[in-house]
């Protein structure tokens, strides 16, 4: 009797328990399509699985694994890496490293380090040896910064042993983020280097996985370099493969050489790190050195933040600090005609906001480099008066090939919100406001920022912005132009990537349902058979 009651109850429980998917070796908070999980190492090599290091910055502290660097290197006219530029975002469990360009207005430094033209870096406390090195991050998105992931030490003769992944590469272009530089050194002038062209842009607002495999064993002395799980270079000249235990670095710094990574024509830029992983190899032949050198001063602390910073593409858009100094050309802007700056022209309280006034037949322009093509952006501004707002698009040859214009007019303060998609050939942009003979305009709070790649851009709420109704424009397709002043829809058809994600998710769910149904049917049949046999007994 007990057996007869048990099996129907068990059957009911099984039929009401949903089938669960199984996940294989996927890192927490990582993208399984771009990490290194399924990338093989060289034949004959193996991982030291007992000593793998992994940090996804979820511990709300850095000092358990890292030190924060506060030092200079190279020529003395750069401001090095400062602890002031290292942040731990405890809300999203991300490491944020800031770089300050030549349009940054604050000049605070400690011992000459920090302020404009400074970056930030962290260094792993433990010494590293040959193995796989991996970081998943959103890179800094502007030219003029060297964003890098590297190992480094010096021998007794000050020769550096170093492995670098750096971007943008040494080209001096305004937007070389479709290229990356791989270098390994064994002294100050002995190196193997390759510059790789990509089919996409690394400053697209997405996470990308950068990795290298460092071998120094009997069978392999080489460095293999990867981006998003794809091997892009293999350096096999044994004269240039480091053999000393090293320090692992991660950071962004601003060189004083324009030909290195371009000019830092921006206010603030960021890199955002999701995780770092180091998997040492077994049976390597590196020379034992003890503690690796080259960290510099690490006595200063990082900062805790609880919100992700906005990646702003327009410098000093409030005009407040520029208005106080009456200097506009040195802050990235150019103008024609009669343009004046004053706190009295600001959209907000005059004590905290500046503004720009354009007289009749005048214009103000801001050049924006390093703009990736075919990406979603939002452009915003407060205005009062009559003006034409333009976004001009330039190709790699510096030729203006497209322009979007919006006619704006309101006797009270209004807000422009313009959602757009950069055309395919975009290399850099210009933001322009210009007036006609019959009008003048006040401007404030200029802003351009990238939207999350998978999300459509919502419409602003009507009335947002002070005086009149909010002026907005929908996402523009490449090659189109737009004029108008009313509120229009910013809905957009689903992107191909979103459709592919939905299709993949649907197929996975169907597979799980099918597997669950098959397992459930099999178990049901077995239980029913056992039930019949028990009944006969």
Overview of this structure, please?
- The protein has 4 helices and 25 strands.
- It is mainly β and 537 residues long.
- A hairpin with a 5-residue loop joins strand 21 and strand 22 (400-421).
- The longest helix is centred in the C-terminal third of the chain and has 41 residues, at 496-536.
- It starts with a helix and ends with a helix.
- Mean pLDDT is 78; it is low at 1-33, 453-470, 477-507 and 509-514.
Compact summary:
With 537 residues, this protein is mostly beta strands. It has helices at 2-15, 258-261, 320-325, 496-536; strands spanning 53-55, 66-68, 86-89, 94-100, 120-124, 131-138, 146-154, 160-167, 179-185, 191-197, 208-216, 221-227, 230-235, 247-253, 268-280, 303-305, 333-336, 339-341, 356-358, 363-368, 376-394, 400-421, 428-434, 441-450, 471-473. The protein contains four helices and 25 strands.
Structural class: mainly beta
> Termini, distance in Å?
11 Å
Rg, alpha carbons: 28 Å
**Major sheet characteristics:** 9 strands, mixed
- The fraction of residues in strands falls at 25-35%
Count of alpha/pi helices: 4
Average of pLDDT:
78
Which bin fits the share of residues in helices? 10-25%
Cα shape = elongated
Uncertain runs with pLDDT below 50, 5 residues or more? 1-33, 453-470, 477-507, 509-514
The SSE order reads HEEEEEEEEEEEEEEHEEHEEEEEEEEEH
Care to count the β-strands? 25
């Amino acid at each position: 009797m007990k057996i007869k009651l048990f099996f129907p109850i068990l059957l009911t429980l099984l039929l009401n328990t949903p089938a669960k998917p199984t996940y294989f070796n996927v890192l927490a908070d990582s993208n399984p399509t771009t990490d290194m999980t399924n990338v093989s190492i060289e034949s004959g090599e193996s991982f030291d699985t007992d000593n793998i290091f992994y940090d996804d910055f979820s511990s709300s502290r850095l000092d358990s694994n890292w030190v924060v660097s506060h030092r200079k290197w190279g020529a003395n006219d750069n401001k090095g890496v400062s602890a002031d530029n290292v942040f731990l975002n405890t809300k999203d469990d991300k490491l944020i490293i800031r770089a300050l360009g030549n349009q940054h207005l604050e000049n605070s430094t400690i011992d000459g380090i920090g302020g404009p033209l400074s970056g930030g870096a962290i260094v792993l406390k433990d010494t590293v040896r040959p193995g796989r090195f991996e970081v998943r991050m959103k890179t800094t998105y502007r030219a003029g910064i060297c964003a890098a992931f590297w190992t480094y030490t010096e021998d007794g003769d000050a020769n550096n042993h170093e492995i670098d992944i750096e971007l943008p590469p040494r080209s001096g272009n305004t937007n070389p983020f479709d290229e990356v530089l791989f270098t390994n050194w064994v002294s100050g002038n002995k190196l193997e280097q390759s510059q790789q062209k990509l089919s996409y842009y690394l400053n697209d607002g997405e996470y990308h996985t950068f990795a290298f495999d460092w071998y120094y064993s009997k069978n392999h002395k080489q460095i293999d370099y990867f981006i998003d799980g794809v091997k892009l270079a293999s350096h096999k000249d044994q004269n240039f493969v480091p053999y000393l235990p090293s320090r692992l670095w991660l950071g962004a710094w601003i060189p004083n050489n324009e030909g290195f990574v371009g000019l830092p024509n921006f206010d603030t830029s960021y890199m955002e790190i999701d995780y770092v992983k180091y998997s040492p190899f077994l049976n390597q032949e590196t020379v034992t050195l003890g503690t690796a050198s080259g960290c510099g001063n690490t006595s200063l602390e990082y900062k805790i933040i609880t919100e992700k910073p906005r990646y702003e593409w327009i410098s000093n858009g409030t005009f407040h600090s520029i208005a106080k100094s009456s200097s506009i050309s040195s802050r990235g802007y150019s103008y024609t005609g009669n343009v004046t700056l004053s706190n009295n022209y600001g959209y907000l309280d005059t004590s905290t906001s500046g503004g720009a006034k354009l007289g009749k037949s005048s214009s103000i322009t801001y050049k924006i480099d390093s703009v990736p093509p075919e990406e979603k952006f939002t452009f915003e501004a407060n205005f009062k008066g009559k003006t034409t707002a333009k976004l001009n698009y330039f190709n790699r040859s510096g030729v203006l090939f497209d322009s979007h214009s919006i006619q704006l007019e309101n006797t009270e303060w209004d807000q422009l919100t313009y959602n757009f998609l950069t055309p395919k050939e975009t290399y850099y942009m210009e933001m322009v406001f210009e007036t006609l003979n019959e009008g003048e305009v006040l401007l404030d709070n200029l802003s351009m920022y990238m939207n999350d790649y998978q999300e459509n851009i919502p419409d602003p709420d009507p009335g947002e912005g002070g005086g009149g109704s909010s002026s907005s424009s929908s996402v523009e397709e490449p090659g189109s132009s737009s004029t108008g002043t009313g509120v229009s829809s910013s809905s957009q058809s689903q992107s191909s990537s979103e459709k592919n994600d939905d299709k993949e998710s649907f197929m996975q769910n169907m597979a799980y349902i099918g597997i669950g149904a098959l397992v459930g049917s099999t178990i049901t049949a077995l239980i029913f058979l056992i039930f019949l046999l028990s009944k006969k007994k």
